[in-house]
Amino acid sequence: MADVATTGFEILFGRAPQVARDAPGRVNLIGEHTDYNDGFVMPIATPQRTRVELAPRADDVARIFSANLADDRPSEFRIGQERRRGDWIDYAQGVTAAMRARRLPVRGFDARIESNLPLGAGLSSSAALEIALLRALCAAFDLAVDPIEGARIGHDAETGLVGAPVGIMDQMAATFAATDAALFLDTRTLAFERLALPAAAELVVVDSGVTHAHARGEYRVRREECTESARRLGVPALRDVTEQLLALAALPPPLDRRARHVVNENARVLAARDALRRGDEIAFGALMNASHRSMRDDFEVSTDDVDALVAIAQQQGEVFGARLTGGGFGGSVVLLVRRGAAHEVANRVSGRYRAERGRMPAVLIP
Predict the structure, then answer these.
(1) What angle do CA 52, 40, 205 make, to 5 degrees?
(2) CA separation for the pair 268, 293 (Å, rounded)
(3) Where are the domains of the chain?
(4) What span, in angstroms and rounded, lies between the C-alpha atoms of 110 and 74?
(5) Mind spelling out the 3-state secondary structure of 191-245?
(6) Under a CB-based contact definition with an 8 Å cutoff, are residues 332 and 292 in contact?
(7) CATH tag, 8-186
């Protein structure tokens, strides 16, 4: 007997789903482009989630339907014959390929995916899909997978078959983050701590309307620049670089700016952890502002529209801090605002941004 009731799945596949599992998106409060440098990050889960309904099959065919896309038929692939296609189905293929690499016995299945996470908004819709699908597959095939290993499977799916050079923050956030507490994460050890936001503050997230894609372009270039910087500095990762070493190394541009961002961003995340421990919204907001300046000037992953949106937000009296969130080159901005002012600030900021930039922003939180 199915443990969920649905009509969409039954219309598609002629039977009820056996299991349903979901996973959240994430907003990264601070700590950008530090995760693939073995550094520190601080995401928080979004209320928006991705849900997967699934039923096993007796063969090796996987049929997957996305309710958020225009396709009117499921996409298909065979378990054991996963191949990159360059579209959304690669995230599902990546999960099954990564599970098989660990000798987890997965066979064919039917699945329906539905999400209220916007694509390309910097909220990690891909990791939410990976972890939700993994959870559904584990439940359907009675597989016991440690949650941290599950995050690694999702990460392998994205960096492997999908080919996006991302760090593991997103999959760890989709697995462990909550909507009411920040997740301080050491991406080298995967140790984490949940920290409450200051009592006097709450979050606003606004999608700039500029979409991005991490599997190509400048994101990949930034990662390569970080790897080269670490090589020249003689360390395993930029996590291991001190301010003193960076000052003495005299890296050539733009590597000097890339490394400076990562070193300083790691320090900002540690300072942000301390600010949350003492409930200091003013200090946390100042760190967010500094993080955005670094992403704009040193790491150069922002855009004119995003900078304008952040600047509008920072001019509001109720805003403690604002910054681009996610990998950059578009996406969303996150604001820490005075508690009780979130709706008013979100409407004011998005309205002014729309008028000045001609973009259509979307308020995602609250």
Answers:
(1) 55
(2) 12
(3) 8-186, 198-365
(4) 9
(5) CEEEEECCCCEEEEEEECCCCCCCCCCHHHHHHHHHHHHHHHHCCCCHHHCCHHH
(6) no
(7) 3.30.230.10
Confidence of residue 213 (pLDDT cuts 50, 70, 90): low
Which amino acid, one-letter code, is at 356? E
Give the number of other CB atoms < 10 A from CB of residue 298: 19
For residue 113 the two structure tokens come to 């995916």
In terms of Cα–Cα distance, which of 100, 102, 94 is closest to 77? Answer: 94
- Structural contact between residues 140 and 111, judged by C-beta atoms closer than 8 angstroms: no
Q: What angle do CA 274, 280, 283 make, to 5 degrees?
A: 80
Q: DSSP letter at 249? A: H
Section 239-262 average pLDDT: 95
| 3-state class (DSSP) for residue 311 | helix
CA–CA dist 152, 171 (Å, integer): 7
User: Can you give the length of the chain in residues?
Assistant: 366
Class of residue 337 by CB neighbours under 10 A (exposed 0-12, middle 13-18, buried 19+): buried
Positions of E strands within 252-340: 319-325, 332-338
In this prediction the pTM is 0.93
- 262 pLDDT exceeds 90? yes
**With contact defined as beta carbons under 8 Å apart, do 332 and 44 qualify?**
no
Specify whether domain 198-365 bears CATH 3.40.50.620. Answer: no
The residues carrying an active-site annotation are: 170
Condensed to tens digits (0 to 9), the pLDDT of residues 149-198 reads 999 999 999 999 999 999 999 999 999 999 999 999 999 999 999 999 99
Mean pLDDT, the chain, rounded, equals 94
Split at pLDDT 50, 70, 90, the class of 123 is confident
What is the rounded average pLDDT of the residues 236-256? 95
Beta bridge partners of 35: none
